[in-house]
Amino acid sequence: MSAKPDNLIKTVFQSVLKDNGFLKKSDGWYYHEMDSCVMVANLQKSNYGEQYYINFGIWWNALGKVSYPKHYQCHVGCRIEELHPKSEKEVEQLLDLDAPHADRVGKLTILINGAINILRKGCATQKSLKEFIKTEKLLARKDLSKLLGIKVEED
């Protein structure tokens, strides 16, 4: 995969999502192949350097169908490093074009594919979503937490 260094992360991100059946619309990528939810992916560039962030969201259809929610509107949201907490530093380096990294393309491809597989398994059923949120310590909106029977800390 040859790309200008400043587009390398974007190129890998788009290629992996497309290969996994995601469709691009506006600034988001959407996966509609599951009846239970819409998975959303978004690539965000830092305003302060060459760092990028990969955001994921899960829109749970039982709470109302929306075809193209923004990642920040989703019932569950996370960044890719939350799905790979043991390698958080490496994830940050892979997504930072100012940091040198050998085999960035290969490792990013594996990382993004891994995150997509984790999300697919996590939102396959209502039961798996509840367990996924608890296991990964993800934040869920109150309406989803109520539906799943997850206790929400009050502000």
Structure commentary:
The protein has 155 residues and is α+β, with helices and mostly antiparallel strands. The protein has one domain. Helices cover 39% and strands 20% of the residues. It has six helices and six strands. Strands 1-2-3-4-5-6 form a six-stranded antiparallel beta sheet. A hairpin with a 5-residue loop joins strand 2 and strand 3. Helix 1 (8-19) packs across helix 4.
| Element-by-element helix/strand order | HEEEEEHHHHEH
Strand line-up across the major sheet: 1-2-3-4-5-6
Number of strands: 6
Radius of gyration, whole Å: 16 Å
Contiguous helical run count: 6
Taking the alpha carbons of the first and last residues, their distance comes to 47 Å
Percent helix, as a range, is 25-40%
Taken together, the total number of domains comes to 1
* Main β-sheet description: 6 strands, antiparallel
Amount of beta strand: 15-25%
